TrEMBL record:
<keyword id="KW-0539">Nucleus</keyword>
<protein>
    <recommendedName>
        <fullName>DNA-directed RNA polymerase III subunit RPC9</fullName>
    </recommendedName>
</protein>
<dbReference type="InterPro" id="IPR010997">
    <property type="entry name" value="HRDC-like_sf"/>
</dbReference>
<feature type="domain" description="RNA polymerase Rpb4/RPC9 core">
    <location>
        <begin position="1"/>
        <end position="127"/>
    </location>
</feature>
<dbReference type="GO" id="GO:0000428">
    <property type="term" value="C:DNA-directed RNA polymerase complex"/>
</dbReference>
<comment type="subunit">
    <text>Component of the RNA polymerase III complex consisting of 17 subunits: a ten-subunit horseshoe-shaped catalytic core composed of POLR3A/RPC1, POLR3B/RPC2, POLR1C/RPAC1, POLR1D/RPAC2, POLR3K/RPC10, POLR2E/RPABC1, POLR2F/RPABC2, POLR2H/RPABC3, POLR2K/RPABC4 and POLR2L/RPABC5; a mobile stalk composed of two subunits POLR3H/RPC8 and CRCP/RPC9, protruding from the core and functioning primarily in transcription initiation; and additional subunits homologous to general transcription factors of the RNA polymerase II machinery, POLR3C/RPC3-POLR3F/RPC6-POLR3G/RPC7 heterotrimer required for transcription initiation and POLR3D/RPC4-POLR3E/RPC5 heterodimer involved in both transcription initiation and termination.</text>
</comment>
<comment type="function">
    <text>DNA-dependent RNA polymerase catalyzes the transcription of DNA into RNA using the four ribonucleoside triphosphates as substrates. Specific peripheric component of RNA polymerase III (Pol III) which synthesizes small non-coding RNAs including 5S rRNA, snRNAs, tRNAs and miRNAs from at least 500 distinct genomic loci. With POLR3H/RPC8 forms a mobile stalk that protrudes from Pol III core and functions primarily in transcription initiation. Pol III plays a key role in sensing and limiting infection by intracellular bacteria and DNA viruses.</text>
</comment>
<keyword id="KW-0240">DNA-directed RNA polymerase</keyword>
<dbReference type="Pfam" id="PF03874">
    <property type="entry name" value="RNA_pol_Rpb4"/>
</dbReference>
<dbReference type="InterPro" id="IPR005574">
    <property type="entry name" value="Rpb4/RPC9"/>
</dbReference>
<comment type="similarity">
    <text>Belongs to the eukaryotic RPC9 RNA polymerase subunit family.</text>
</comment>
<dbReference type="InterPro" id="IPR006590">
    <property type="entry name" value="RNA_pol_Rpb4/RPC9_core"/>
</dbReference>
<dbReference type="InterPro" id="IPR038324">
    <property type="entry name" value="Rpb4/RPC9_sf"/>
</dbReference>
<feature type="region of interest" description="Disordered">
    <location>
        <begin position="120"/>
        <end position="148"/>
    </location>
</feature>
<dbReference type="InterPro" id="IPR038846">
    <property type="entry name" value="RPC9"/>
</dbReference>
<keyword id="KW-0804">Transcription</keyword>
<comment type="function">
    <text>Accessory protein for the calcitonin gene-related peptide (CGRP) receptor. It modulates CGRP responsiveness in a variety of tissues.</text>
</comment>
Amino acid sequence: MEVKDANSALLSNYEVFQLLTDLKEQRKESGKNKHSSGQQNLNTITYETLKYISKTPCRHQSPEIVREFLTAMKSHNLTKAEKLKLLNHRPMTAVEIQLIVEESEERLTEEQIEALLHTDTSILPADPEPEPEPEGTAASAMEQEGPA
């Protein structure tokens, strides 16, 4: 078997999140439960993937945001994979950009990196602030005790 075009079907985290959420809803509506071991494995993979991906910035994205982001990225000389990584990870610093964009030192100037950061942070929604832990948790109890 030969791969004709390896980059023809890249999916963003948002697209995977939407696909799995829709699949989960369809299974709920149809009433199908864990009948076979294959179905049980699929349910486990779906659950674990949704659990992980719901903690990433993609949860707060929409098709319009993704479209606007990709339109804004056309002016930058980046590969499909690099645009996808920027979309999925929403870098906040120049160091993160340098880790995502291959050979960024040769390909991008500092101004271009700043422009990428500005585009990324202005279009893509940020994660909401993490909720404070309830008073009764072990972490808050340790904070109250102070250093040993």
